[in-house]
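Workshop exercise sheet. Pairs work together: one partner reads the sequence aloud, the other fills in the structure field after running the prediction. Swap roles for the next sheet.
Pair: D.N. / O.F.
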Amino acid sequence: MRASFNRYKVGNVKVFFNRLGYHAAPNGSFEKRINRGDLFPRFHAYVEADGENVTISLHVDAKRPSYEGTSAHAGEYAGPLVEAEFSRIRLALPADGGTLHL
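Structure field:
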């Protein structure tokens, strides 16, 4: 699932995602564990900043890649879990471009 937000409201992307509980992944994306202590399932967000917009592509990695050397995994790209996380992201954005409300 993808959504675009005003870049001014997001501010520093890394700081924004850190405040939401995400950490930076080696490939420049962001990950957040859904269950404490378990690596999977986890939210996985790819972020593109372009002009005045920040586009977030979010999905759930259900499990680690099945075959060594591949990046294929069981992922959920839509549904209630992804929609609820996008709602949480939207709520974290300031209405006026001021401080974040988390």
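Discussion prompt: Residues 98-102 have pLDDT under 50 and may be disordered. What would you look at next?
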